[in-house]
Amino acid sequence: MLERFALCRRDTMSAHSCVRSAPLTPPLFEARRLSFTVDASALPVPWPIAFDHDRIAQVLSNLLSNAMKFTQANGTVSLRANWHADCVEFVVRDSGPGIAKHALPHVFERFWQAGTESRDGLGLGLYICKTIVEAHGGRIGVESERGNGATFRFTLPAGQPESDAGVEPVEHSRPEQ
Fold first, then answer.
1. What is the Cα 141 distance to its own chain's centre?
2. % pLDDT > 70, the chain
3. Is 0.85 topped by the overall pTM?
4. Cα–Cα distance measured from residue 108 to residue 130, given in angstroms and rounded to the nearest whole number
5. What residues does each domain of the chain span?
């Protein structure tokens, strides 16, 4: 079934403030005995980019909660943002068990899950992240090696906000009930 949702791109939100207001706060990580760091120092503070804050917060929340879920106590999770000439890159890295090489091409597929031993969730989170990032004109990917954690990166186009930035419909698939 195909459904439409709206992106509300706001040119008043900077990527820096989005990272600084990460959806999952340090106390959640501390409760699980995880070290959590945020680094937005590479971003020019006043530079606004056009993106839907709520949708990007949803992407960050999903990536950070996955990192928290798959990282053992005393591990680390980090969120970093980097400025490039044509985009802002967000990087979520963890020290969890990593993802097997054969699984990497599938992690953004709808209903796909890495392990069969635990059926936490529906296997939609990373698929939704990919849909949101691509709707913004960005890209998302993962790098991992079994035993060495995982690094998820996504980009959002940078530059002057479009003059007609506002609400725009985006089509995405919705699973049949």
1. 10
2. 67
3. no
4. 7
5. 2-173
